[in-house]
């Protein structure tokens, strides 16, 4: 099973052209060096899971593991605990995140 490793975990991810500061609601340590990030959402509107990609890269870098060892999900409190997990196939690469930041800059 998973054990709580920390709440309100603050991490940074250095990208071009900025350094992103992340605050992860909860981080759980799992079996075999795996990790789970949970981001609680109190609104009822579902949001894109793109933000979770940043969290996965930041936690993987901070723990010295590959992104494959990190799971991440939104849990919607007002929607009876609806869970939107970031699928491995949907994980944005660092290059994709940087490209999105360049467009917004």
> Strand pairing plus helix content: what structural class?
alpha+beta
Q: Percentage of helical residues?
A: 10-25%
Strand content: 35-45%
If you compute it from the alpha carbons, what radius of gyration comes out, rounded to the nearest whole angstrom? 14 Å
Tally of helical runs: 2
What is the general shape? globular
Low-confidence stretches: none
Quick one: how many beta strands? 5
Q: What is the string of SSEs from the N terminus onward? A: EEEHEEH
Alpha-carbon distance between the termini?
A: 41 Å
Physical arrangement of strands within the biggest beta sheet: 1-2-3-4-5
Mean pLDDT: 93
How would you characterize the largest beta sheet?
5 strands, mixed
What would you say this structure looks like, in words?
This protein is of the alpha+beta class and about 100 residues long. About 25% of the residues lie in helices and about 40% in strands. It is built from 2 helices and 5 strands; from the N terminus they run βββαββα. The chain has helices at about 50-65, 95-105; strands at about 5-15, 20-30, 35-40, 70-75, 80-85. Strands 1-2-3-4-5 form a 5-stranded mixed sheet. The mean pLDDT is about 95.
Strand and helix map with partners:
Layout: E1 3-14, E2 19-29, E3 35-41, H1 50-63, E4 70-76, E5 82-85, H2 94-104
Parallel strand pairs: 3-4
Antiparallel strand pairs: 1-2, 2-3, 4-5
Task: Please summarize what this structure is.
It contains two helices and five strands, in the order E-E-E-H-E-E-H. With 105 residues, the chain is an alpha+beta fold.
What tags apply to this protein structure?
single chain, 105 residues, alpha+beta, 2 helices
């Amino acid at each position: 099973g998973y054990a709580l490793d920390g709440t309100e975990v603050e991490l940074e991810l250095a990208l071009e052209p900025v350094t992103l500061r992340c605050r992860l609601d909860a981080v759980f340590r799992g079996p075999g060096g795996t990790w789970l990030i949970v981001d609680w959402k109190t609104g009822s509107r579902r949001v894109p899971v793109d933000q979770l990609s940043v969290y996965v890269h930041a936690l993987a870098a901070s723990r010295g593991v590959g992104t494959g060892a990190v799971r991440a999900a939104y849990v919607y409190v007002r929607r009876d605990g609806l869970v939107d997990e970031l699928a491995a196939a949907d994980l944005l690469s660092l290059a994709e995140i940087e490209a999105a930041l360049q467009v917004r800059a």
